[in-house]
Specification:
It contains eleven helices and twelve strands. The strands form three sheets. Strands 5-6-2-7-1-8-9-12 form an eight-stranded mixed sheet, with helices on both faces. It has a two-stranded antiparallel sheet with strand order 3-4. α5 packs parallel to α6 and α7 runs parallel beside α8. The longest helix has 16 residues. It is globular. The model has no long low-confidence stretch (mean pLDDT 89).
Protein backbone atom coordinates (compact mmCIF):
# COMPACT_ATOMS: atom_id res chain seq x y z
CA UNK A 1 0.00 0.00 0.00
CA UNK A 2 1.28 3.42 -0.92
CA UNK A 3 -0.09 5.00 2.26
CA UNK A 4 1.92 2.74 4.58
CA UNK A 5 5.15 4.39 5.83
CA UNK A 6 8.35 2.44 5.24
CA UNK A 7 9.00 2.16 8.98
CA UNK A 8 5.46 1.07 9.86
CA UNK A 9 4.70 -2.14 11.80
CA UNK A 10 3.60 -5.31 10.03
CA UNK A 11 -0.18 -4.79 10.40
CA UNK A 12 -0.26 -1.03 9.73
CA UNK A 13 -3.78 0.01 8.60
CA UNK A 14 -2.34 2.81 6.43
CA UNK A 15 -2.20 6.56 6.98
CA UNK A 16 -5.50 7.16 5.14
CA UNK A 17 -7.45 4.59 7.12
CA UNK A 18 -10.02 5.65 9.71
CA UNK A 19 -8.06 3.45 12.14
CA UNK A 20 -4.78 5.27 11.49
CA UNK A 21 -3.05 5.84 14.82
CA UNK A 22 -5.85 4.08 16.68
CA UNK A 23 -5.54 0.39 15.74
CA UNK A 24 -3.75 -2.07 18.06
CA UNK A 25 -0.94 -2.34 15.50
CA UNK A 26 -0.27 1.39 15.95
CA UNK A 27 0.78 1.06 19.61
CA UNK A 28 4.44 2.02 19.92
CA UNK A 29 4.80 3.01 16.24
CA UNK A 30 6.92 6.17 15.86
CA UNK A 31 4.25 7.58 13.48
CA UNK A 32 1.28 7.01 15.81
CA UNK A 33 0.71 10.58 16.99
CA UNK A 34 0.97 11.92 13.44
CA UNK A 35 -1.43 9.35 11.98
CA UNK A 36 -3.93 9.91 14.79
CA UNK A 37 -4.22 13.60 13.92
CA UNK A 38 -6.94 14.78 11.54
CA UNK A 39 -4.40 15.41 8.77
CA UNK A 40 -1.60 12.85 8.80
CA UNK A 41 1.68 14.42 7.69
CA UNK A 42 3.67 11.27 7.04
CA UNK A 43 6.43 9.48 8.93
CA UNK A 44 7.95 10.77 12.16
CA UNK A 45 10.17 13.71 11.14
CA UNK A 46 12.72 12.63 13.76
CA UNK A 47 13.51 9.44 11.85
CA UNK A 48 16.19 11.22 9.83
CA UNK A 49 17.67 12.72 13.02
CA UNK A 50 17.95 9.25 14.52
CA UNK A 51 19.62 8.04 11.34
CA UNK A 52 22.14 10.88 11.45
CA UNK A 53 23.02 10.10 15.08
CA UNK A 54 23.29 6.37 14.41
CA UNK A 55 25.50 6.90 11.35
CA UNK A 56 28.40 7.34 13.76
CA UNK A 57 27.93 3.81 15.11
CA UNK A 58 29.36 0.98 13.02
CA UNK A 59 27.53 -1.98 14.54
CA UNK A 60 24.14 -2.01 16.28
CA UNK A 61 23.05 -5.27 17.94
CA UNK A 62 19.84 -5.99 19.86
CA UNK A 63 19.75 -8.54 22.68
CA UNK A 64 16.27 -10.07 22.73
CA UNK A 65 14.24 -12.83 24.33
CA UNK A 66 10.52 -13.36 24.54
CA UNK A 67 11.00 -14.69 28.08
CA UNK A 68 11.94 -12.79 31.21
CA UNK A 69 14.61 -14.00 33.61
CA UNK A 70 16.81 -15.70 31.02
CA UNK A 71 19.78 -13.38 31.62
CA UNK A 72 19.55 -10.80 28.83
CA UNK A 73 21.02 -7.96 30.88
CA UNK A 74 23.82 -10.14 32.24
CA UNK A 75 24.59 -11.33 28.71
CA UNK A 76 24.44 -7.79 27.27
CA UNK A 77 26.77 -6.45 29.96
CA UNK A 78 29.37 -9.14 29.44
CA UNK A 79 29.05 -8.90 25.67
CA UNK A 80 30.00 -5.24 26.02
CA UNK A 81 32.84 -6.09 28.41
CA UNK A 82 34.16 -8.69 25.96
CA UNK A 83 34.23 -6.28 23.01
CA UNK A 84 35.60 -3.43 25.15
CA UNK A 85 38.49 -5.69 26.24
CA UNK A 86 39.99 -4.68 22.88
CA UNK A 87 41.08 -1.13 23.62
CA UNK A 88 40.72 -0.21 19.94
CA UNK A 89 36.92 -0.70 20.21
CA UNK A 90 34.54 2.00 21.39
CA UNK A 91 31.51 0.29 22.92
CA UNK A 92 28.13 1.44 24.23
CA UNK A 93 25.08 -0.11 25.91
CA UNK A 94 21.60 1.34 25.50
CA UNK A 95 19.24 -0.03 28.15
CA UNK A 96 15.61 0.17 26.95
CA UNK A 97 14.25 -2.06 29.70
CA UNK A 98 12.39 0.99 30.95
CA UNK A 99 10.41 -0.65 33.76
CA UNK A 100 13.28 -2.80 35.02
CA UNK A 101 16.61 -1.11 34.25
CA UNK A 102 19.30 -3.34 35.73
CA UNK A 103 22.23 -2.39 33.49
CA UNK A 104 23.45 0.45 35.80
CA UNK A 105 23.84 -2.03 38.69
CA UNK A 106 25.37 -4.78 36.57
CA UNK A 107 27.89 -2.34 35.04
CA UNK A 108 28.83 -0.83 38.41
CA UNK A 109 27.55 2.69 37.67
CA UNK A 110 24.36 2.73 39.74
CA UNK A 111 23.70 6.17 41.21
CA UNK A 112 25.51 8.04 38.43
CA UNK A 113 23.75 10.96 36.74
CA UNK A 114 23.33 11.92 33.11
CA UNK A 115 24.70 15.33 32.15
CA UNK A 116 23.34 17.51 29.38
CA UNK A 117 25.43 19.58 27.01
CA UNK A 118 25.01 21.33 23.67
CA UNK A 119 25.72 18.02 21.94
CA UNK A 120 23.01 16.17 23.90
CA UNK A 121 22.84 13.80 26.85
CA UNK A 122 26.22 12.43 27.86
CA UNK A 123 26.23 8.68 28.51
CA UNK A 124 27.81 7.36 31.71
CA UNK A 125 31.27 5.88 31.20
CA UNK A 126 32.23 2.58 32.84
CA UNK A 127 35.75 2.87 31.44
CA UNK A 128 37.42 4.93 28.74
CA UNK A 129 35.96 2.91 25.86
CA UNK A 130 32.67 1.69 27.38
CA UNK A 131 29.62 3.86 28.02
CA UNK A 132 26.03 3.29 29.12
CA UNK A 133 22.65 5.02 28.86
CA UNK A 134 19.67 3.84 30.91
CA UNK A 135 16.45 5.21 32.37
CA UNK A 136 17.95 4.09 35.68
CA UNK A 137 20.15 7.19 35.61
CA UNK A 138 17.07 9.42 35.36
CA UNK A 139 15.31 8.12 38.48
CA UNK A 140 15.62 9.91 41.82
CA UNK A 141 15.81 6.53 43.59
CA UNK A 142 16.54 2.98 42.38
CA UNK A 143 13.30 1.99 44.12
CA UNK A 144 11.18 4.32 41.97
CA UNK A 145 8.66 2.54 39.74
CA UNK A 146 8.36 3.58 36.09
CA UNK A 147 4.62 3.49 35.35
CA UNK A 148 4.38 4.59 31.73
CA UNK A 149 2.14 3.77 28.80
CA UNK A 150 3.46 3.00 25.33
CA UNK A 151 3.74 6.54 23.88
CA UNK A 152 5.92 7.77 26.74
CA UNK A 153 8.18 4.71 26.48
CA UNK A 154 8.43 5.34 22.75
CA UNK A 155 9.38 8.96 23.39
CA UNK A 156 12.22 8.03 25.75
CA UNK A 157 13.61 5.44 23.34
CA UNK A 158 13.59 8.07 20.61
CA UNK A 159 15.47 10.43 22.93
CA UNK A 160 18.08 7.77 23.67
CA UNK A 161 18.62 7.31 19.93
CA UNK A 162 18.34 10.95 18.88
CA UNK A 163 19.62 13.01 21.80
CA UNK A 164 22.38 10.95 23.45
CA UNK A 165 25.87 12.02 22.43
CA UNK A 166 27.13 8.52 21.60
CA UNK A 167 30.00 9.87 19.53
CA UNK A 168 31.79 7.43 17.25
CA UNK A 169 31.17 3.87 18.44
CA UNK A 170 32.25 0.56 17.01
CA UNK A 171 29.50 -1.38 18.81
CA UNK A 172 26.19 -0.41 20.40
CA UNK A 173 24.41 -3.21 22.28
CA UNK A 174 20.73 -2.66 23.07
CA UNK A 175 19.38 -4.42 26.16
CA UNK A 176 15.63 -5.01 25.88
CA UNK A 177 12.80 -6.14 28.17
CA UNK A 178 11.07 -9.48 27.58
CA UNK A 179 8.28 -9.74 25.04
CA UNK A 180 7.44 -8.21 21.66
CA UNK A 181 5.74 -5.01 22.79
CA UNK A 182 6.14 -1.23 22.72
CA UNK A 183 9.89 -1.03 23.35
CA UNK A 184 10.68 -3.68 20.74
CA UNK A 185 8.43 -2.17 18.07
CA UNK A 186 9.82 1.31 18.66
CA UNK A 187 13.51 0.40 18.56
CA UNK A 188 12.94 -1.83 15.53
CA UNK A 189 11.21 0.93 13.58
CA UNK A 190 13.74 3.62 14.49
CA UNK A 191 16.75 1.43 13.76
CA UNK A 192 15.38 -0.03 10.54
CA UNK A 193 16.90 2.77 8.48
CA UNK A 194 20.28 2.65 10.26
CA UNK A 195 21.71 -0.63 8.91
CA UNK A 196 21.19 -2.57 12.12
CA UNK A 197 23.34 -5.72 12.21
CA UNK A 198 20.68 -7.85 13.85
CA UNK A 199 19.64 -9.50 17.10
CA UNK A 200 21.10 -12.08 19.45
CA UNK A 201 18.35 -14.20 21.01
CA UNK A 202 18.89 -15.43 24.58
CA UNK A 203 17.04 -18.44 25.98
CA UNK A 204 17.30 -21.06 28.71
CA UNK A 205 17.05 -24.81 28.02
CA UNK A 206 13.52 -25.53 29.28
CA UNK A 207 10.52 -25.59 26.96
CA UNK A 208 8.63 -22.93 28.94
CA UNK A 209 11.30 -20.44 27.85
CA UNK A 210 11.60 -21.76 24.30
CA UNK A 211 7.88 -21.20 23.72
CA UNK A 212 8.32 -17.43 24.04
CA UNK A 213 11.70 -17.33 22.31
CA UNK A 214 10.13 -18.79 19.17
CA UNK A 215 7.74 -15.84 19.16
CA UNK A 216 10.69 -13.45 19.42
CA UNK A 217 12.33 -14.97 16.35
CA UNK A 218 9.02 -14.65 14.50
CA UNK A 219 8.87 -10.99 15.58
CA UNK A 220 12.35 -10.37 14.16
CA UNK A 221 11.31 -11.84 10.83
CA UNK A 222 8.16 -9.72 10.67
CA UNK A 223 10.10 -6.49 11.28
CA UNK A 224 13.02 -7.58 9.09
CA UNK A 225 15.67 -7.74 11.81
CA UNK A 226 18.31 -10.41 11.04
CA UNK A 227 18.78 -13.03 13.75
CA UNK A 228 22.52 -13.30 14.35
CA UNK A 229 22.12 -16.38 16.52
CA UNK A 230 20.67 -18.05 19.60
CA UNK A 231 22.49 -18.35 22.94
CA UNK A 232 21.41 -20.93 25.51
CA UNK A 233 22.04 -19.42 28.93
CA UNK A 234 22.03 -21.31 32.26
CA UNK A 235 22.97 -24.47 30.37
CA UNK A 236 24.07 -26.66 33.25
CA UNK A 237 25.65 -25.70 36.58
CA UNK A 238 29.42 -25.47 36.96
CA UNK A 239 30.76 -26.08 40.46
CA UNK A 240 33.17 -23.24 41.32
CA UNK A 241 35.39 -25.69 43.24
CA UNK A 242 35.73 -28.78 41.02
CA UNK A 243 34.24 -27.33 37.76
CA UNK A 244 31.98 -30.39 37.42
CA UNK A 245 28.89 -29.54 35.33
CA UNK A 246 25.37 -30.63 36.36
CA UNK A 247 22.12 -30.16 34.44
CA UNK A 248 19.77 -27.90 36.43
CA UNK A 249 17.25 -27.18 33.65
CA UNK A 250 17.14 -30.33 31.46
CA UNK A 251 16.47 -29.51 27.81
CA UNK A 252 13.36 -31.69 27.49
CA UNK A 253 12.74 -30.63 23.87
CA UNK A 254 16.35 -30.18 22.76
CA UNK A 255 17.04 -26.75 24.25
CA UNK A 256 18.36 -23.75 22.39
CA UNK A 257 20.38 -25.79 19.93
CA UNK A 258 17.35 -27.70 18.67
CA UNK A 259 15.35 -24.47 18.61
CA UNK A 260 17.97 -22.89 16.35
CA UNK A 261 17.79 -25.86 13.98
CA UNK A 262 13.99 -25.82 13.92
CA UNK A 263 13.85 -22.06 13.26
CA UNK A 264 16.78 -22.16 10.81
CA UNK A 265 18.94 -19.62 12.66
CA UNK A 266 22.57 -19.90 13.83
CA UNK A 267 23.34 -21.39 17.24
CA UNK A 268 26.10 -19.43 18.97
CA UNK A 269 26.64 -21.66 21.99
CA UNK A 270 25.78 -22.55 25.58
CA UNK A 271 26.61 -20.62 28.75
CA UNK A 272 26.70 -22.65 31.99
CA UNK A 273 25.48 -21.39 35.34
CA UNK A 274 28.15 -20.20 37.72
CA UNK A 275 27.01 -18.61 41.01
CA UNK A 276 29.95 -16.21 40.82
CA UNK A 277 28.35 -14.56 37.75
CA UNK A 278 25.46 -13.31 39.89
CA UNK A 279 27.87 -12.09 42.55
CA UNK A 280 29.90 -10.14 39.98
CA UNK A 281 26.73 -8.57 38.57
CA UNK A 282 25.60 -7.49 42.04
CA UNK A 283 29.01 -5.90 42.59
CA UNK A 284 29.19 -4.31 39.14
CA UNK A 285 32.23 -6.28 38.03
CA UNK A 286 33.07 -8.13 34.83
CA UNK A 287 32.96 -11.87 35.47
CA UNK A 288 35.18 -12.35 32.42
CA UNK A 289 37.94 -10.31 34.04
CA UNK A 290 37.55 -11.58 37.60
CA UNK A 291 37.36 -15.28 36.66
CA UNK A 292 39.14 -15.67 33.31
CA UNK A 293 39.70 -19.42 33.79
CA UNK A 294 36.07 -20.31 34.51
CA UNK A 295 34.34 -22.69 32.05
CA UNK A 296 31.61 -20.03 31.76
CA UNK A 297 34.19 -17.44 30.68
CA UNK A 298 35.65 -19.81 28.09
CA UNK A 299 32.15 -20.53 26.76
CA UNK A 300 31.43 -16.81 26.55
CA UNK A 301 34.66 -16.14 24.66
CA UNK A 302 33.68 -18.82 22.14
CA UNK A 303 30.27 -17.20 21.66
CA UNK A 304 31.87 -13.79 21.11
CA UNK A 305 34.22 -15.34 18.53
CA UNK A 306 31.27 -16.84 16.64
CA UNK A 307 29.45 -13.53 16.76
CA UNK A 308 32.47 -11.75 15.31
CA UNK A 309 32.47 -14.28 12.47
CA UNK A 310 29.10 -12.96 11.32
CA UNK A 311 29.70 -11.03 8.10
CA UNK A 312 28.12 -7.83 9.42
CA UNK A 313 29.49 -7.83 12.98
CA UNK A 314 33.03 -8.71 11.99
CA UNK A 315 33.30 -6.15 9.20
CA UNK A 316 35.14 -2.88 9.67
Amino acid sequence: MGDVPQDAPHDCPGTQSEDAGKASACEGCPNQSICASSKPKGPDPDIHLVKEKMDGIRHKILVLSGKGGVGKSTFTAHLAHAFAADSSNEVGIMDIDICGPSIPRVMGVEGEQVHHSNSGWSPVFVQDNLCVMSVGFLLSSPDDAVIWRGPKKNGLIKQFLRDVDWGKLDYLFVDTPPGTSDEHISVAQYLKCTDIDGAVIVTTPQEVALLDVRKEITFCRKVNIPVLGVVENMSGFVCPKCTTETQIFPPTTGGGEQLAKDMDVPFLGKLPLDPRIGKCCDEGKSFLEVFPDSPATKAFVNIVSKLKECSTVGSS
